[in-house]
Structure formats: structure tokens, C-alpha cells
Amino acid sequence: MDAADEAQKHEAAFLDAAVRARRIAPTEEQLRDESGAVICVDCDELIPAARLKSVPDAVRCVECQAAWEASL
Ligand SMILES: [Zn+2]
């Protein structure tokens, strides 16, 4: 486990706590599969580790994020 994984773990724990405490909108929560991998909230595909390194709190894959931002 490298530092990025460790940071990701802390970020996830922090987000979980924040969600429970303040009820962040479900769309802003990261979804995870049984192995703990983050999956896109829109298409259920795995979000690549490279994306999570640059955007640790990403909830969507690149394609869905682009579509979501375009719909704002
Ligand atoms: Zn997606």
C-alpha cells in the first residue's frame, strides 16, 4: 500500500463520516464494490486508479463526469 492508497483510505473514511453527519447528497458519495474499488455512480463501471489519483473524490468516470458537467 503506497501513500496515495493510504490517503485514499483516509479520504473515504472522512467522506463516510461526513455523509453520515451531514447527509451529503447521494450523488456526491463514492460508490464502492465488494473489493473496495470505486465505481461510477452513473454507469457502474470501475473508475480507473489513475483518475482517482488525480481526483481522489471522483464519483464518476471521465466520460460520465464530462456528460454531467455538460448538463449543468
Ligand atoms: Zn461512468
Estimated radius of gyration: 12 Å
Q: State the oligomer.
A: single chain
Helix content, binned percent: 40-55%
- Mean of pLDDT: 83
> Which hetero ligands occur in this complex?
zinc ion
Could you give the count of β-strands?
A: 2
Weakly predicted, low-confidence segments: none
Coarse shape: globular
Taking the alpha carbons of the first and last residues, their distance comes to 37 Å
What is the count of helical runs? Answer: 3
| Sequence of strands across the biggest β-sheet | 1-2
* Main beta-sheet strand count, sense and barrel state: 2 strands, antiparallel
List the secondary-structure elements in sequence, H or E: HEEHH
Helix-and-strand structural type: mainly alpha
Work out the count of structural domains: 1
What percent of residues are in strands?
5-15%
Question: Which characteristics define this entry?
Answer:
single chain, about 70 residues, mainly alpha, two-stranded antiparallel ribbon, 3 helices, about 50% helix, about 5% strand, binds zinc ion
What's the quick description here?
This protein is mostly helical. It has one domain (3-71). 50% of the residues lie in helices and 6% in strands.
What can you see in these coordinates?
By secondary structure, the protein is mostly helical. The chain has one domain (3-71). It contains three helices and two strands. It has helices at 3-22, 49-54, 62-71; strands spanning 31-32, 38-39. A two-stranded antiparallel sheet has the order 1-2. The longest helix is centred in the first third of the chain and has 20 residues, at 3-22. The protein is globular, with a radius of gyration of 12 Å. The N and C termini lie far apart (37 Å). The mean pLDDT is 83. Zinc ion binds at residues 40, 42-43, 45, 60-61, 63-64. The site of zinc ion has 8 residues, from α3.
